[in-house]
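In the current project phase, work has continued on tokenised descriptions of protein folds. One protein thus recorded appears below exactly as we store it.

——
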Amino acid sequence: MAGLAATAVVAVVLWLRTMANAWLVLALVATLAGAAALTADLCVVTDREALEELFPRLARAAEAGDVETVLAAIDPAAGQLRTDAERALARARATSVWITKLEIDLPPGRAPRTARVDLIVRVTGNWIDGGSGTGIVRLDVHMRKDGDRWLVTAADGVPIGAEQAIHHRSSERSRTVEHVCPSRMRGVPTGKPAAFPPVGHVDKGHGRLCPRTARARLA
């Protein structure tokens, strides 16, 4: 680019001195070549930029209930993941999907190109069969490049706070550690808006207090 610009400047100076049309033509060609090179450089999208653009686009697709766009970003070979995503979008309507963290690990010089993306996503939505909720999920997403597209090959999600104590109460007679029961978290598809039960809840799936809560209760 710098060489082309210098050539154009020198050609213009020489043209002004000699008034030769050939030098003007050379200046025009050099200038157009430089502009073309700059335009091509600006149009090139790096792999990192492509991934940074992909996930916000998928978040908007999830909000819109655009199943086709979401499935198009999942590797056809990842059959179970595609089924889980389709089932989640059919059972819930996401009203808000916010990506609060997006970190990309892109190993250099590997063919085929792969990447690993660490995200934290906050999802608010409504269940199709009633109810609503907000969940914050940490996602570990594996990607591979197919031509000029990046595809999701695997994804694991962990609801944030599922294994952490979120309330502590002590008294002279008893002490209870109340938390979100992990048993209520298992089976929640990745990206699905999770309705977090209240602390100290009764696990309706088992008809009793969550075992971990019960063990923490001291007489």
Q: What stands out?
A: Residues 21-43 form the longest helix (23 residues). Residues 2-43 form one domain. Helices lie at 2-18, 21-43, 47-64, 67-72, 79-91, 211-216.
